[in-house]
Specification:
Layout (H helix, E strand, L loop, with lengths): L4 E6 L9 H10 L5 E7 L15 E3 L6 H14 L4 E4 L7 H9 L2 E6 L6 H9 L2 E4 L4 H5 L9 E3 L20 E6 L8 H7 L7 E6 L4 H13 L6 E5 L6 H4 L5 E4 L8 H8 L4 E4 L4 H6 L4 E4 L4 H13 L1 H18 L2 H15 L2
Parallel strand pairs: 1-2, 1-4, 2-3, 4-5, 5-6, 6-7, 8-9, 8-11, 9-10, 11-12, 12-13
Length: 351
């Protein structure tokens, strides 16, 4: 009889969900002698990576019929003999948790963003356990006695055998990059506006899916200020190809309004690229406190420009930050550390 703990990871899809790479890393790296992992998505099954078999990937479409959804998800859990559901759903949908309660299945979710509401509170009350990746979330969301005994701080990690410094390409421009969905929250327009006050050989490379209306706003500003030859839209980059992108990059910039724990910062640091980040929800501050980058205030664009100019003019400072950043990730934020932390948490549910 198979005594492995059967875990079902849930995520909306592998097309737009930002946590897909973290979930996939867990699925692929978890100890298969002790755990039997499955994945459940809502849509876009064609985007599921090829190494995940049909047997291991379930599809469950949530509808507006909340009562039926709950019963049907309970049935899915029973049919597949699931022991633990680990949700990576960024929404406040509490029906997964309710279905788990009815089915007698342990329910864990990882809190990744700074959203909060009565629905989030209900989801948290129904959950057996909550993992959070930004230390400030404890005081913001989980200080109540209701939650203090069922929370764990588990920061994300990256695979430092993949995300590592590569030999830099030869170039005549100073290249900055922003990797992530191109939209209002990521706030790439903040960087674009700064280019007017920066030397003309500083170029910006933007990677990621773009929201149509936000891209139009960016295009309008770029064209009006004659910046088209300095802003380069590169589209989506596969996660494992990011280290190759960084061969051509001098500085990673993250100007987001809100973030949980930005994995993009960890990837840049691991690849030896210095980081300049907004203090977006405390996650960047936590990641950079042991070196590798500099925080800036979104309310102080002049200060941001001064930071960028100084890094542009001082390769020695960039080299120091590069070394500090890589050491920071290797010591504190490896994928192995994250996987082991979750394995220990899953095992504790069976005691």
């Amino acid at each position: 009889m198979d005594k492995r703990i059967r875990i079902l990871y849930t995520i909306p899809n592998f097309k737009t969900a930002g946590s897909q790479y973290v979930l996939l890393s867990l699925f692929r790296k978890i100890d298969k002698t002790a755990f039997d992992p499955y994945i459940c998505i809502e849509k876009f099954p064609e985007t599921v990576p090829n190494d995940i078999s049909e047997k291991k990937c379930l599809v469950f479409k949530w509808t507006d019929h909340k009562f039926n959804n709950t019963l049907n998800f309970r049935k899915l859990l029973k049919n597949h003999e699931i022991d633990i559901v680990h949700s990576w759903d960024y929404k406040s949908n509490y029906f997964e948790a309710l279905a788990c309660r009815i089915a007698g299945v342990k329910y864990l979710y990882t809190k990744k963003n700074n959203a909060w509401s009565k629905r989030w509170k209900l989801k948290s009350m129904l959950a057996n356990h909550i993992a959070y990746d930004n230390p400030e979330m404890k005081s913001h969301f989980f200080s109540s006695l209701l939650f203090q005994n069922k929370i764990s701080f588990i920061p994300h990690g990256v695979d430092t055998s993949i995300f590592k410094p590569l030999e830099q390409s030869i170039r005549i421009t100073f290249n900055i990059a922003c990797i992530g969905n191109i939209g209002d929250n990521k706030n790439q327009l903040f960087i674009v506006k700064s280019l007017k006050d920066l030397p003309s050989d500083i170029h910006l490379y933007l990677y990621g899916n773009d929201e149509r209306t936000y891209r139009e706003k960016l295009n309008e500003y770029i064209n009006s200020n004659f910046l088209a030859n300095r802003v380069h839209f590169k589209g989506v980059v596969a996660n494992n190809d990011i280290p190759t992108v960084y061969k051509n990059i001098d500085l990673f910039v993250l100007p987001s309004f809100q973030e949980g724990l930005p994995v993009s910062i960890l990837e840049a640091l691991a690849c030896g690229v210095p980081v300049l980040s907004s203090d977006s929800g405390g996650g960047a501050r936590f990641l950079l406190k042991k070196g590798g980058g500099i925080l800036f205030d979104l309310e102080d664009p002049i200060g941001f420009t001064e930071h960028l100019k100084r890094l542009y003019q001082n390769p020695e400072e960039r080299i120091t930050l590069s070394s500090e950043g890589r050491k920071n990730v290797v010591a504190n934020f490896t994928l192995r550390k994250e996987v082991v932390a979750y394995q220990e948490l899953y095992a504790s549910f069976k005691k």
